[in-house]
Amino acid sequence: MAGTASFNSATQILTVAADGLPSPVASGVFPNDNNSNTITEQDFDHDFLYRGGTFGPTRTFNSNQYTHDGFIRSISLISSDLNVFTGNFIQPGDEVLFVFSDGLKKRFIYRGTTFTSVEGEFWLATSDRLDLIMETQENTPVSGTYEYFDARNSRSATPLGAIGIAGNGVTIFNPSAGGGLNPPPGFQWIAAGESPFVDSGEDSCGGHPETTGQYHYHDPHFIDCWNANGAMAGYNDYYGSTQFNGDNLRHPDGHSKILGIAFDGFPIYGPYGYNSPFDNISTPRVMRTSYRVRDVEIPGRPDYGNSSDNPPAGTLMEDWEFVEGVGDLDTCNGRFCTTPEYTTGTYAYFVTVDENDTDIVKFPFIIGKTTRETIDTTFTNEPVQGGAQLPEVTITVTVGTDSVNGQATGVFYFNGVEKPANFALERETTKYIFNQDADSNATFGDTYHPLMVSPGEDGELAGYDHYMNGITYKLDGVTKTMMQYHMGFEAATTRRMEWVVPATAPNLLWYWCHFHTGQGNSFAISGGTVIPTLAFTLQPQNVTVSSGATATFTVQTEISPEDGPVTYQWYRSTDGGFAFSAVTGATTDTYQLTGLSYMTGYRYRCRITGPVGAPVQADNSPLDSQAAILTVTGGGDGGSTDNRFDSTLSTFDSTLQTYDGT
After folding, report:
1. Exposed, middle or buried by CB within 10 Å (0-12, 13-18, 19+), for 210?
2. Which of 49, 173, 321, 499 is deepest in the core (most CB within 10 A)?
3. CB 509 within 8 A of CB 455
C-alpha cells in the first residue's frame, strides 16, 4: 500500500494511512553495525487540517484599513490591539506577512518600539499606530485594506518523532537524535546530515528504523533514492507525468514538486523555489537555509573539539542558530511564496541542500527547530502483527454509585474500583484499551457517559481542552472522531477508547465524563520522556538606588520534575511596561546597571527558556518573569532627553518625514 490519502474539501481535513515501508523506493540494510532495528510494517493513521494554499490563520487589527503616504504604510490601532504586542503574540524579530487589497503580498520584520526606516521592517511608532516601511513611495496618500499572518504559533520546539509524512508514506522526523547515543548532558546529537559525530545507521536515503520498526526520514537524501530507476515516477501521475531535465521531482519550469506534508498542514517542497517569492516567472533556484553554526559555544556546552567529550562544532542541535537574512528561509525552514500548485500563494517548507552541490544536505534538512503552526501529533501508529507489537492492557469501565458524594449521575469505576486517583499508565510501552461496553456506561442515571481525557479536572466542563494525543475512539470496531464517539455512544454495542500514551504526555492527566462533572479522577503518567515545567522561585524585585549607584535585578528558577539549564534574557521597558526590548548581553540570572535619574520608572523583566538541550522543551517555555520597577533618587547626571526615543517629550510623526529607500 505504501501511503494513501483522502481530502475533505468541506472541512479541509486530510486523512492519511500508510504502512511505513519505503516502497516503491529502496532502503538500506537493517539491522546494521550502527542500527540493530528491523524495518517492519506499520499501521499509521492520521487526519489533520491541511493548510496548503493558505498562509495560516488570518488576522487584522480593530481597523483593517491602511494608509500609504511617502514610504510608509500606516495602520491605526486602538488600546485593545496592543495586547498583540504586550502579550507577545508578535515579538521583535518576528516575520509577519501582510496581504494588501492592492494585490501586494510582503513579509515584514517587526522591530518593536525601536524606530526603523529600513524597507521591509515595521515598528510600533506610537501606541495607536504601526508604521510599515515600503520600497515604493506614494506622493499622494492612498488607502486600502489588509490582513496579516503572524508567527505566534511558531514558538515551541519542533517535537521529536513523526512531524510529517513523505509522498511514499514514510514518516518524516526532525534532525535530532533526542537524548539517544549518549550526547553531552543536556544536549542532543544531530542524527542526519553529511557527517554526524555519531552514526545511527542512517542509510543512503536519509532514513532508518526506530525500535518499533518504524522507518523514517531525517534528511533529503531520499530525493536521490526517489529518482533512482524512476522509482517515484511510476508511483503516481503527480511525479510521473512531468519532469525537468529528467528530474521527476521538479515541475517543467524547474520548481520543486511537493515531497511531503508537515503535520501542521503545510506542504514540504524539494529544494528549488522561485528566485522571487511571489513571482512565478522568476527563475527557480536552490532555497538557502538561514541556520549557521555558532561562532562561540552556548553556555554549558563543552568546548568545540574532536572528541566525544568535546564534540566538533555543528554536531549538536544546540550548535546551530538562526540568522535573519543569510538565507531564503525562516526559522521553521519555510517561507511565504507562490508555487506551481498555489499560484496565489502559500506557506511552504523547503528541504535544504548546498546551493553549489545538491548532493550535500544542509541543516535543518527538512523542517527547522520550530514549525509555522503547531504540529498535530494525534496520529496513531502501531506495528502490525509480526512486528514489535505493543502489549495490550484492557481496563473495564463501568458507571456506578457515588459512595462519597452521592452524585445522581454516578462515577466511573475502573476494573471495579470506584473513581481511582492517580491511575497508573506508562508512556509508549502499552496499548491501553478502555472498554465501555457495559450497559451502565449508556444507562446509569438515565443518561450516558463517554470517557474523555483532559489536562485538567472535569475537562471541557471546567474550561480545559480535550487531550487527544495517541487516543483512538472506536464504536462497533470503527474508528471515530471524539465528537462522533459521544454522539453515537448510546446506539453502539461496543465502545472503546484505545490509547498509546505518547512520549510527550505530561505526568498528570484527568479522565472525565463528556457530560457530567465530578465523575472522573486523575491519571499518573510515568516512563518515557517527561515534559518539564519552568518556574521562577525568585522574581525580580523593585529597586531604589541613588543616581550613579548600581542597581541589581536577579531571578532564581527551577525546572520540574528534574532541574536543568535554562537561558536568560533580560528585557527593558522605558514606557511604563507598554513594550519591552531585549537588553544586549544581559543573558545571566542577574542584571546590573548604573542608575541615572532619567531611568526612574523603567521596568525590567527576565525571559527564560529551557531546559537547554533537552529532547522536550518545557510546556511553558519561554516564560517571562514579573516586571520590576527601577527608582533613581537624586539627579543632575541624566543628560538631556530631547533626542532620546524613550522620552515622552518627543513625538515621531511619519507624515513629517520621508524615507528614501535608495
Report:
1. middle
2. 173
3. yes
Residue 297 CA to residue 282 CA, distance in Å, equals: 39
383 vs 496: which has the higher pLDDT? 496
All cell numbers assigned to 469:
494525543
Distance CA 334, CA 327 (A): 11
How far is the C-alpha of 178 from the C-alpha of 504, rounded, in Å? 12
Instruction: State pLDDT tens for residues 598-649.
Output: 999 999 999 998 888 776 677 778 888 999 999 999 875 444 333 333 333 3
Cβ density class 171-195: b for 16+ within 10 Å, e for less: bbbbbbbbbbbebbebbbbbbbbee
DSSP-derived secondary structure for 378-424: --EEEEPTTS-PPPEEEEEEEEE--TTT--TT-EEEETTEES-SSEE
Q: Provide the CATH number for the domain formed by 65-149 in this structure.
A: 2.40.30
How much is the pTM?
A: 0.64
Mean pLDDT over each residue of the chain, to the nearest integer:
89
C-alpha cell at 360: 550535500
Q: What percent of the chain has pLDDT over 70?
A: 93
DSSP 8-state assignment for residue 641: -
Architecture of domain 390-526: Sandwich (2.60)
**What dihedral do alpha carbons 192, 197, 202, 206 form, nearest 10°?**
20
List phi, psi (to 5°) of 442. Answer: -110, -5
The one-letter amino acid at 95: E
Q: Which residues, in sequence order, are bridge partners of residue 108?
A: 96
Fold matches, 65-149 and 390-526: no
CB burial string 238-255: b at 16+ within 10 A, e below = ebeeebbeebbbbbeebb
Question: Which residues are registered as beta bridge partners of 165?
Answer: 171, 261
Residues 6+ apart with CB under 8 A from 497: 433, 434, 436, 451, 453, 471, 472, 473, 474, 485
3-state helix/strand/coil string of 19-85:
CCCCCCCCCCCCCECCECCCCCCEEEEEEEECCCCCCCCCECCCCCEEEEEEEEEEEECCHHHHHHH
The owner of cell 521596568 is 603
Residue 428 — pLDDT band, cuts 50, 70, 90?
confident
Half-sphere exposure of 184 toward its Cβ, with a 13 Å CA cutoff? 24
pLDDT, one tens digit per residue, over 160-207 is 889 999 999 999 998 888 777 778 888 888 988 776 677 888 888 999
Fold topology of 533-633: Immunoglobulin-like (2.60.40)
The residues spanned by each domain of the chain are 1-56+154-384, 65-149, 390-526, 533-633
> pLDDT band at residue 159, thresholds of 50, 70 and 90?
confident
